[in-house]
Amino acid sequence: AQTVTQSQPEMSVQEAETVTLSCTYDTSESDYYLFWYKQPPSRQMILVIRQEAYKQQNATENRFSVNFQKAAKSFSLKISDSQLGDAAMYFCACLISGTYKYIFGTGTRLKVLA
Amino acid sequence: NAGVTQTPKFRVLKTGQSMTLLCAQDMNHEYMYWYRQDPGMGLRLIHYSVGEGTTAKGEVPDGYNVSRLKKQNFLLGLESAAPSQTSVYFCASSYFGNYEQYFGPGTRLTVT
After folding, report:
1. β-pairing, A10-14 with A108-113?
2. What is the CB-side half-sphere exposure of residue A24 using CA atoms within 13 A?
3. Contacts A91 to B, Cβ<8 Å
4. Distance between alpha carbon B35 and the CA centroid of its chain, in Å?
5. Which residues of A touch B (CB under 8 A)?
6. What are the phi and psi torsion angles at B97 (to 5°)?
7. What is the mean pLDDT of each run of 10 residues along chain A (114 residues)?
8. pLDDT exceeds cutoff 90 at B96
9. Could you give the CA distance from residue A68 to residue B28 in angstroms, rounded to a whole number?
């Protein structure tokens, strides 16, 4: 069975600084997708960034980037120039191609300090 | 577009009561999902549907039933609510070829 592990229940970062959220996953499949979702206090889940396993290049979206280490099964999220609006729960998720079943991690709560 | 909407937003039930949560999407997505979110547990998949008239079990299906009679709607039913079903329920949808899930705003359900 696939699993996704987020070992940091809570993280803090100073405004304008950089923070990295960790995620590891376990699957024997070779074709899969990885995601980071953000859940602010409003509860609305929003996609932050996605990575296809077959792509070696790390995905980036403005201030958000990932460090995808396929051999180590690691998928960390880096947030640069942190802003107060980045404060939220962040969930890592994995989707095995063709299965439709997303597996989510338990989340990391990010606090941004002014 | 309204995206994914959920009805109701909040509900309190007594043990043994039944209810139906409605999820609607106006994006013509083929796939729809129901999750529950509990503290420290992340999101867990209850049931999902890959098309109108089809449903399948997810990770935690016991105590829930679903139906997808119309492509745009995905209903989640609790026949006999239990306190263990107190949770926040999220509906999501996605379309073939794009694996991003679009989420609804959630329904907070309390079973006393």
Report:
1. parallel
2. 6
3. 42-43
4. 6
5. 4, 6, 9, 33, 35, 42-47, 50, 91, 93, 95, 100-102, 104-107
6. 95, -15
7. 92 97 93 95 93 92 96 97 97 89 93 96
8. no
9. 32
